[in-house]
Amino acid sequence: MLGLLPKVSVVLPFYNSDKTLSIALQSISDQDFTDFECVMVDNNSTDGSRKIAAGWERDDSRFRLLEEKKQGVMFASNRGCDAARGAYIARMDADDVALPGRLRLQCEFLDRQPDYGAVAGLVNHVGDPETTGGFRRFVEWSNSVITYEEIYNRRFIEAPIVNPTAMWRRYTMERFGLYRSGDFPEDYEMWLRWLDQGVKIAKVPEVLLDWHDSEGRLTRTHPIYSDRAFFEIKSQYLAHWLTDNNPFHPAVWVWGASRISRRRARMLEDKGVQIDTYIDTKRSRQIDRQLIYYEDLPKAGERFILTYIRQMDNREKIQAFLEMRGYVEGKDYLLVS
């Protein structure tokens, strides 16, 4: 394929991944779509990872090995994306396994949908259910958010895209930028930024990846993935969205009057949003702000509501209640937590 440009560039950064890298690369080699290159980026590995990657580069011309000296998956990912030659860019992690149809299904989607800038997919959660239950529940939620409308309206609950399932057009990253460095989860910030700027994203409604979870995963250990970091970055983009879309701006009502919910919602007040009233399911709760019992809500169209309820079952009950009352998601309310 010397001199020819591949349709897809798979960007795979790695750091000390000698226990999983071979399987990840094999899953790319086994794709039933063959017009691709795999850009492997070594991020200062000290184990046998680089030797494994060099072997793939030697044996298969579709695999290229680069290095990034600045430590961090964000820097390694951007290095690979900058060097990618394909019209479509697919992300992959060194501890995950792509199912054989992944690249084909995502290419077919982008070929059919020229107005979409990126596409992702569903995942199998692979991990010990006794120690990774939180991630399993996140995967269940993420796999239920598929269409552009669902992703757009529910992007403030959690990161709506599992990063190593993503594929995007070269045009998308050139116009709207890639991962940014900061005290926030870099992949979540990129999805929020792209959606904020009008990029349409959806998912192929099929499982494309075995997503391996472990106690050492960066999303568990690095401070940029802390609960506060997530709420800070989502509050920034949510405040911007409310400025343009809340007919009662800057005023909102917040469903969730617990101490944790109020602490998270207060991040919005630092960004110019005014919380007029809190909504609660307990008549007896006492707080130093105006509080209303949920059954006493005004009719739809008179207030804009943000829900700050983390438990999935309760969040779904709240949404069902609001819809029953005539509230429309994205118009009269948003699920935020």
Class from helix and strand fractions: alpha/beta
Q: Which architecture of the largest domain does the CATH hierarchy give at level 2?
A: Alpha-Beta Complex
Radius of gyration: 21 Å
Largest sheet: 8 strands, mixed
The overall pLDDT average reads: 93
- Work out the count of structural domains: 2
The total count of helices amounts to: 12
Strand order of the largest sheet: 3-2-1-4-7-6-8-5
Instruction: Estimate what percentage of residues fall within beta strands.
Output: 15-25%
Percent helix range: 25-40%
By DSSP, the count of extended strands is: 13
Shape: elongated
Q: Tell me the CATH topology of the largest domain.
A: Spore Coat Polysaccharide Biosynthesis Protein SpsA, Chain A
**CATH class term of the largest domain:** Alpha Beta
Q: What is the CATH superfamily of the largest domain? A: Spore Coat Polysaccharide Biosynthesis Protein SpsA, Chain A
Cα distance spanning the termini: 47 Å
SSE pattern, N- to C-terminal = EHEHEHEEHEHHEHHEHHEHEEEHE
Low-confidence stretches: none
